[in-house]
Amino acid sequence: MNRRVLVIIILCMLVWFPIHGLTAYADTPQLTGEKQFQTNFADTVLTGGITYTQQYVQLESYWNVTSFDIHLDYQISQLLRIERSSVTVFVNGTPIHSFRPKQEDTGLQQLTIPVPKTALIPGINTIMVQGHLETTSPVADHVCLPTDTRDNWLQIAKSSRITVRYVPELNSTRIGDFYERFIGLDTVKNGENAIAVALDSEPAELEAATYALSGLAKANKVTDKPIPLVPYSDALFQQKQMVILIANYDHLPEMWKPVRDETDLDQNALIQLQEAGGHSVLVVTSKDAALLVKAGRFIANTSLLSQVSEARIAISNNTEVDTPPVNVSSQMSLTETGDKLTGDRHREKAYFISLPGNRSIAEGSKLRINYRYARNVDWDRSLVTVLINDSPIGSKKLSTELADADHLELTIPKTLNISGNFTIKVAFDLELKNAGCIENQDQMPWAYIEKDSILQLNTKDRTDLLFNNYPYPFLRDGSYNQVAVVLPDQRDTYLYQTLTNVFNLLGRYAQTNTGEVLFYQDTVKESLLKGREIIAIGSPQANSIIKVNNRSLYFQYDSAGQGFVSNEKMSIESSYGKRIGSLQLLDSPYEQGYGMLALTGSTPEYTYLASKLIGSEGSLWKVFGDGAVTDKDGHVQAFRFKKTTTKQPSNVISDVLERKDVLGFMTAATLVVLLVIISLLLMLRKYKKKRRDRG
Predict the structure, then answer these.
(1) How far apart are CA 366 and CA 4, in angstroms?
(2) Average pLDDT over residues 214-236
(3) Hey, which residues does 109 pair with through a beta bridge?
(4) Mean pLDDT across the stretch 532-558?
(5) How far is CA 422 from the centre of its chain?
(6) Pick from 517, 455, 439: which is nearest to 482 by CA?
(7) Is residue 418 within 8 Å of residue 438, measured between CB atoms?
(8) Helix, strand, coil % in the chain, rounded to nearest 5
């Protein structure tokens, strides 16, 4: 009897648990199987007596970390004194492991260090490897000798890595959570996300997808892995777990059409998160093309997207979706709260400054660093140095009189030719007296960068049609600059891969979701291309815009339009001309003052090959001038064909117009001069009138 009762109780529990497990899914996140994420160190050499390197690892909010391991592959100097040398690993400032290199082995050594979960924090974690390296030993006890650092080195190989094992939470029903997962490190690195449109999508659908892609590309933390733009198919979900599907309502597959009544889609666009077979799909749809485009801009405003806590949101004509405009000439603080640097010898802090790609630093830009520091340093050897993109622009010695309130004011040299994003680095060399005779303390000496340190940034446009200034002319002040994309008559996978490359990089530079990108077929009227920056994609046989303007190309096609021919810069064998792709940045043939990018090759494959050159910042450096070709073997040849480039009417005038302080001073001075002249005229008139009265 007891056995029968026990069986009944077990059966009841088996029935009860699944039911309540499904009910709890909506309230508490559940976990799936364990996964692994790995990132490698850069190839680094640590030199000097006490030296360090840092690595940053982000832990996504939906990861439940089960283990965090640091694997070091390193090599040491053959002259190192093992008994007096050590290496310490810090995680978020907390030491977690110290060791001495092996005595018997000076080749490549390996070590795996498990990190306790208590040392980890949500978001970005800082891993620091610090070496205390010595190659000399005192000849006698209690004798102080200078530390010899010439032969002190420890090399960390690029095979060193950080491995994170985690259990991801199950997908939630919140759009904001979908966004975090869509751009998550593991999702992007494993190629599990995509933005999908219909294979024969309409211009409004491509426009909306382009805006969405641009905003998400800027938020993507994996710089060498683009977010793909793909045509929709059922096979898409064999590889992709997170998909944003953008389509007019009539183009939506039946399984992804909104469950609710769709009559409101005449007056609204709908963004709705749906789940099927373990896949998450964010459906963006409307019956109105303009509203669909507006929904694409909403996706591009990732700040708004991350705030949505529901599974469904409607976008109407009254919905605000635009991002704030970019201020490109202003005073900006380097740090909001101030930054402290501790420890002796070389310590540095870097600040990333965001600037539109077409803007460069103008004359008169200044940097003021306010700082204070400890009084126990060697004043003869301690100093502060400021670097921009690792180029030093000035230094100053530390002094005991100014230790509590020192500052360094520098003018940014015009010769640096800085455009786009750049980094300011403040480096302190805090040297101690008799450093070889005292025990090193991590908290002394110290330096502190004040929060009122500012950058006075004056910028100007770079308007030459050269790849050196790319993404100009397609972006201006962080927004799309009236772009027209002319597509070939046939669309295939290569075309969407080409669009993926073009707009992933442009999206990284785009700082707003404003501006305009319109899509046209190659039969577009010339009047619609006036006043626009043009991107023409395809071969002469597939795109009539390329065919009609073949004579204007720097790399021209043969009479049959099947391959490139030689020009004044490069000799091209006939069969080789059919196996290369080309990028060419030309003056627009439809209106003066605008540009055209010809992305072209004899087949869609070679057009896609050319687009890879402008697909990431890692490949953009390979192209310069205004024309480049590439082949399957990775050979890239770039040239400058323009003899002269369009300049601004007057460098002096343009510089004055860019400098608000100088412009204000000149305006005030002009007004004073006018007042003086008017006063003199009035006095002269009064004097003449008196003379007439007396006469």
Answers:
(1) 86
(2) 93
(3) 74
(4) 96
(5) 11
(6) 517
(7) no
(8) 25, 35, 40
Please, are residues 113 and 86 in contact by the beta-carbon 8 Å criterion?
no
- Cα of first residue to Cα of last residue in the chain, in angstroms, is 142
* Residue 426, pLDDT above cutoff 50: yes
Note the helical H segments in 484-548. 493-509, 544-548
* Residue appearing with tokens 């992007």: 188
Concatenated DSSP letters for 336-360? SS-EEEESSEEEEEEEEE---TTEE
pLDDT tens for 551-596 read: 999 999 999 999 999 999 999 999 999 999 999 999 999 999 999 9
Tell me the Ramachandran region of residue 92: left when phi exceeds 0, alpha when psi lies from -120 to 50, beta otherwise.
left
Mark 549-573 as b/e (b = at least 16 C-beta within 10 Å). Answer: bbeebbbbbbeeeebbeeeebeebe
Residue with tokens 């007056």: 267
1 band by pLDDT with thresholds 50, 70 and 90: very low
- pTM for this model (two decimals): 0.80
| Alpha carbon separation from 510 to 24, 83, 420, 598, 628 (Å, rounded) | 41, 54, 11, 21, 24
CA–CA gap between residue 121 and residue 615 (Å, rounded): 33
Q: Is 668 helix (H, G, I), strand (E, B) or coil?
A: helix
d(CA 165, CA 520): 47
**450's tokens:** 């004040």
CA separation for the pair 376, 378 (Å, rounded): 7
**If we measure between CA atoms, which residue out of 489, 600, 579 comes closest to residue 536?**
600
Residues 473/594, Cβ–Cβ less than 8 Å:
yes
Q: Which residues contact 361 (CB under 8 A, 6 or more apart)?
A: 355, 412, 414, 416, 418, 419, 422, 457, 458, 459
Whose CA is closest to 644, among 587, 589, 604, 588? 587
Q: Bridge-partner residues for 330, per DSSP? A: 457
Contact of 462 with 648, CB cutoff 8 Å: no
Query: What tokens were used for 460?
Result: 């100007």
**Spatial separation of the C-alpha atoms in residues 147 and 430, rounded to whole Å:** 16
Tokens 């050269």, residue located: 466
3-state DSSP assignment of residue 165: strand
